[in-house]
Amino acid sequence: MKLLNSAPPFTPLEDRRDHFIIRITVVNGNKDMVTIKAVVIVITLTICLTANTSDGYRYCCRRYMIGRLRDFEIKGYSVQTIKEMCPIDAIIFHTKKGKACTNPALKWVMDAVDRLRTKAQKVHQNNSQ
Predict the structure, then answer these.
(1) What is the CATH number of the domain that holds 113?
(2) Would the pLDDT of 32 be above 80?
(3) If pLDDT is split at 50, 70 and 90, which confidence band does 28 have?
(4) Start and end of every Chemokine interleukin-8-like domain (predicted)?
(5) 74, 112 Cβ separation under 8 angstroms
């Protein structure tokens, strides 16, 4: 016997998802459904937070360079703090070859930062006159 005009049991994707959720509700009851929803929310939030922090963490310095940069190699700098979800505080010097993570507690690092600040102030004063 053949049925005419019969639709497949699940046509749109949403129907399959709704049917699955309804089936879980019927089998496990409302208490378990609330638990499942809570777990899904926690997993979703964890993924979102991990995506945001891991992306930022990828660009964080994880250790300091060994050695010292010469002044002419340094083109600029940026500051990294632990508060930005990075594992260490660092001064990141920008060079033609890339970035160098340095320890802000070292005298040569802060001397180089001071020289860059002084140079930037002079440029600013010359442009504002």
Answers:
(1) 2.40.50.40
(2) no
(3) low
(4) 57-116
(5) yes
